[in-house]
Amino acid sequence: MNDLIEEINDLKKRRDAAILAHYYQDGEIQDLADITGDSLKLAREATKVTHSTIVFCGVHFMAETAKILNPDKRVLLPDLQAGCSLAESCPADKLARYQEMLRQNGRRFQTVTYVNSAAAVKALSDWVVTSGNAEAIVRRVPSDCEILFVPDRHLGQYLQEVTGRKMILWDGSCIVHEIFSVGDLLAMKRKLPGSIALAHPECPANIREHSDFIGGTEAMLKHLATYAEPRDFLVATEANMMWQMQSKFPQHRYHPVPGIACACNKCPHMARNTLEKLRDCLALETPEIVWQPTFDRAREVLQRSLLN
Ligand code: SF4
Questions:
Q1: Angstrom distance (rounded) from CA 34 to CA 36
Q2: pLDDT of 105
Q3: pLDDT at 262 (0 to 100)
Q4: What total of structural domains would you count in the chain?
Q5: 109 & 151 share domain
Q6: What confidence score (pLDDT) does residue 258 get?
């Protein structure tokens, strides 16, 4: 293990590479990274990287976003198959047909797209949002336009609740956040009176309504910073997030909310990236995210939405 870490650090220098890792990666990968963060932080930080290569430890749409915002950099992803159930739920051709149907019916709308989507879908959008900036962007959509929100119906429902804007919701969801067990969450609250439940807005309404704080991963960390005394936190997001919480705020106790079918709530797509694949991709400088024709239009939307 130590040899592998040494090898990665050595290759990182030789390849002039920066490693960016999402909070849902294994702790050992986050430990090696130059920058860790949620989607919004990583997209913004990627534009400040001075190295010639970015190795993105996350899923495909995140590495794609880093490439789109940094066309001159080589962007590597340890496993090109690291996908996302949300991104897969909204193919670009299906979205284009749906938008056309709405236009033919005389509907005036703007498409607000969660960053968990393919570049071709972003290229069909007016705005791209992350859980960190979605509320602010939704409030910027002119009130005389309807909002078509894709692809996460739970995040869309949450945004409807907090902004009061009615939306047309795409029927997508995250396989990790959708399956938290409300029965187990309530049992944990009874067992740990005074505990604080944190839920990601990708969770369904039944989990959100029994949570004390709802926010993306970066917002969760900011919220934890407001508690000085040790507390019990019930965490309804991807389980690796607790590694980051434990590192930054070790005084607290963190308890994963179990899923209906699985007790660990790890994202199988994120888990495709391993230290061995990270080493190999640095050594072989592949797999690489290659520029696609849809990236030009997606770049305009991403820059307007995430960087301004
Ligand atoms: S946790 Fe859910 S939204 Fe995030 S990458 Fe995995 S499947 Fe996609």
A1: 7
A2: 98
A3: 67
A4: 3
A5: yes
A6: 86
What are the 10-residue block averages of pLDDT along the chain, 308 residues in total? 93 98 97 95 95 98 97 98 97 98 98 97 97 92 97 97 96 94 95 98 97 96 97 97 97 93 83 98 98 97 90
Residue 259: its pLDDT value, please? 83
Q: Cα(143)–Cα(256) distance, rounded to whole angstroms? A: 39
Interval between CA 151 and ligand 1 midpoint (Å) = 12
* Residue 122 forms part of a structural domain: yes
- For residue 218, the CA-to-ligand 1 centroid distance in Å is 16
Question: Ligand 1 centroid vs 43 CA: distance in angstroms?
Answer: 16
Cβ of 82 closer than 6 Å to ligand 1, yes or no, is: no
Residue 183, burial from CB neighbour count under 10 angstroms (0-12, 13-18, 19+):
exposed
The token duo for 90 is: 């909204």
Do 164 and 219 reside in the same domain of the chain?
no
Nearest CA to ligand 1 atom 1: 267
Residue 210 resides in a domain: yes
Spatial separation of the C-alpha atoms in residues 203 and 103, rounded to whole Å: 31
Tell me, using a 6 A CB cutoff, whether residue 117 lines ligand 1: no
CATH code at position 61: 3.40.50.10800
Residue 26, domain member (yes or no): yes
Q: Kindly state whether residue 306 falls inside one of the protein's structural domains.
A: no
Does one domain contain both 247 and 186? yes
Does the beta carbon of 90 lie inside 6 Å of ligand 1? Answer: no
Atom index in ligand 1 nearest the CA of residue 174 equals 2
pLDDT at res. 260: 80
Closest CA to 163 of 145, 144, 137, 184: 137
Ligand 1 within 6 A of 238 CB?
Answer: yes
Q: What is the spatial distance between Cα 302 and Cα 204, in angstroms, rounded to a whole number?
A: 27
Q: Which of 150, 169, 188 is the last residue of a domain?
A: 169
Q: Are residues 160 and 193 in the same domain?
A: no
Its domain, for residue 195, covers 177-256
Residue 268 CA to ligand 1 center (angstroms) comes to: 8
**Atom 6 (ligand 1): residue with closest C-alpha?**
267
